[in-house]
Structure formats: C-alpha cells, structure tokens
Amino acid sequence: MSHGTGWRQRAACIGIDPRAFFPIGHHARAQVNAARRICAACPVRQQCAAFAIETGERNGIWGGMTQQQLRQRRRRFTSRAKTSTRAAS
Ligand code: SF4
Q1: Dihedrals φ, ψ of 53, to 5°?
Q2: What is the pTM assigned to this prediction?
Q3: Residue 1 belongs to a domain
Q4: Could you give the number of structural domains in the chain?
Q5: 13 within domain boundaries
Q6: Residues with beta carbon inside 6 Å of ligand 1?
Q7: What residues does 62 pair with on adjacent strands?
C-alpha cells in the first residue's frame, strides 16, 4: 500500500513489500497469517480497516482483516448507514 500522508506514515507495514498484503497462489494462507501478524502490532489498524471499508477495497489484508472479514464489516457499515439515513428522514 502507499504510505503517503496521515495515518499511513505510522503504519507497521512501511518498508515491507506490499505484495505481502495481497496473498495469492499456493502459499496464500501462510501469507495471510504473516500479514496479519504484522497488522496485529500496527498502531493504525483501525484507520486502515476504516479506509478499506469506506473505499471498498476488494483485495488484500487491511487492518489485519481478510477480505471475508472486511466484507462482513462493510455490510454492517452499509446497513447502519441506511438505518441512520432512514431514522433522520
Ligand atoms: S493494519 Fe496492516 S496493512 Fe494496515 S497499515 Fe497497519 S500494517 Fe499496514
């Protein structure tokens, strides 16, 4: 991932090959686990996960979450947003 500005400058993955967070192939499970170990120590996990959910990232490990976990969070986020929109109108 790019580490341009803001929270990204404090990311634990700075200097790590971004491909480590986009697992593919036969070793994908091991890559996912390795990426999640890095994320576990990251001080900006929450910001990273929120960014991925809000921008609809469809690939990679973000905030220590797999794509399946991100999809579940995104669904909850979307359904909460719809509920609050309805409540406000
Ligand atoms: S949570 Fe993981 S992918 Fe996100 S910035 Fe931190 S180390 Fe990088």
Answers
A1: -70, -45
A2: 0.83
A3: no
A4: 1
A5: yes
A6: 11-13, 21, 38-39, 42, 44-45, 48, 62-64
A7: 65
